[in-house]
Amino acid sequence: MSELLDYADVVDRFEPVMGMEVHVELGTATKMFCGCPTAFGAAPNTQVCPTCLGMPGALPVVNVEAVKSAIRIGLALNCSIRPTSTFARKNYFYPDQPKNYQISQYDEPIAYDGYVEVPLEDGTTWRVEIERAHMEEDTGKSTHVGSATGRIHGASHSLLDFNRAGVPLVEIVTRPIEGAGDRAPEIARAYVTALRDLLAGLGVSDVRMDQGSMRCDANLSLKPKGRAEFGTRTETKNVNSLKSVEVAVRYEMRRQAAVLEAGGEVIQETRHFQEVDGTTAAGRRKETAEDYRYFPDPDLAPVAPSAELVEELRGTIGELPWVRRARIQADWGLSDEVMRDLVNLGAIDEIIATVDAGATPDAARSWWGSFLPQQANSREVELDALAISPAQVARVIALVDEGKLTAKLAQQVIVGVLDGEGEPDEVVAARGLEVVRDDGALQKAVDDALAANPDIVEKIKGGKVQAAGKIVGDVMKATRGQADAARVRELVLAACQ
Asked: 20: closest CA among 214, 216, 278?
């Protein structure tokens, strides 16, 4: 690990300047310029065609839904939408870019001059200015075999998968973030968190950082306190978790400060974040815009959304996620700690939808905050990927409220729905799970349990009514948990009078 300066000394002597570039894969069914599917996890090179492979004579066609998503992102970030924006060719060679250029936007991005008020943990906000949000296509994926680090250095050979090549991207670029001081790492994380929540709320992307559908490049430079000119920046590429964004910024601040304090110069370069130890490692020298030789793509006409379309899309933005959370927290009377736990679980949207479907907030929070996360964990999927809808969860809660299911029986119904056995009522019928209320059936089970436990009967008759719990438990076991426990207790006490 490189020599680092103590963090307190860093912020005492230097002012950090950040710039965040976030790439977001849009959740469209097809790619940006062709009709190939975009589903994650397909076998390598099975979602390709002449266009996304850059074959001679294959011409691109713009994905209209991707353009609409880009406009909605721009509007949600308080950007102006350009009446006419153009695509350009960004020229560079890399093995996973089959055309040897990337179709992007350069001097005429679709959205520009925006901002977002980022909520911080102490309840304050930090305004981050957005320079631009532009459309482009993703590259393919390289897998370097035989390298200890997974990178090309030391690899024996590389495998290329072009399924991702051409997937629609929006790149969101901030203006320099100054004045953050010792809170710079926190603000970097909070910004990416807010962006992830915003994009998920818009429904334009699944924002899965672990799968690469949202990737953050963190630019950082240091300038001595009191100096106006920015220092030389580095760009830490493809940081793939919220925590890692914070760790990477903090590490780069300490590393660069150590270099400057030793009389050295920071090199303008890309760097790679190392998840194992939270460090960054040098990559390639950073290119400038001139190195890419941008020029207008001759195969694509300008994008010119009508004012009517822009206003129509503006009407779909809705309430900002953190504003909605604050309102929900106040309405439901949740503590900051409980709300933070629910946010960390990623369950807020599901809970709200379950309440909208008729459940009480407490019941919805109980299911989405406990049993359902356990199921997601055991099935090795994300919570929002569970095969159950908020409406189905609300129906299970209603069955409990109606006395047709106990909490334990309800868990079996949830499992049945998750296993694809149908709607909650169908699972109840198929598994025979409804609570038994018939006194005739219950009385026989109670009589059998009393006959098997004469000592308990004597205790109950002697006034120790709490001993009835043993009989109730035996009846519940005999009826596979389907008996109405309250009614069973009434029958037990009546029999022992």
From this structure: 216
Q: Is the pLDDT of residue 1 over 50?
A: no
Which of 293, 493, 482, 324 shows the shortest CA–CA distance to 404?
482
CB 44 within 8 A of CB 242: no
What is the 3 state secondary structure string of 234-275? EEEEEECCHHHHHHHHHHHHHHHHHHHHCCCCCCCEEEEEEC
Q: 351, 353, 332, 331: which is closest to 343 by C-alpha?
A: 351
Q: Which of 39-43, 302-306, 484-488 has the lowest mean pLDDT?
A: 484-488
**What percent of the chain stands above pLDDT 90?**
59
Specify the DSSP element, H or E, that contains 20: strand 14-25
The residues, any chain, with a CB within 8 Å of residue 34's CB and separated by 6 or more, are 49, 51, 52, 58, 60, 61, 166
Give the residue carrying structure tokens 């001759």. 298
Residues of the chain above pLDDT 70, percent? 88
Q: Which residue has the higher pLDDT, 149 or 45?
A: 45
Q: Dihedral angle at the C-alpha atoms of 279, 283, 289, 295, nearest 10 degrees?
A: -130
What is the pTM assigned to this prediction?
A: 0.78
SS3 460: helix
Q: Which H or E element spans position 413?
A: helix 407-418
b/e string for 201-217 if b means 16 or more Cβ within 10 A?
bbebbbbbbeebbbbbb
- pLDDT tens per residue across span 342-368: 877 778 889 989 999 999 999 999 999
The residues near 35 (Cβ < 8 Å, ≥ 6 apart) are 49
Nearest residue to 393 (alpha-carbon basis) of 430, 420, 418: 418
* Closest C-alpha among 139, 143, 115 to residue 128: 115
| pLDDT at position 437 | 57
Cα(394)–Cα(290) distance, rounded to whole angstroms?
A: 56
In the chain the domains, ranked by start, together with CATH numbers, are 7-310 (no CATH), 319-431 (no CATH), 439-495 (1.10.10.410)
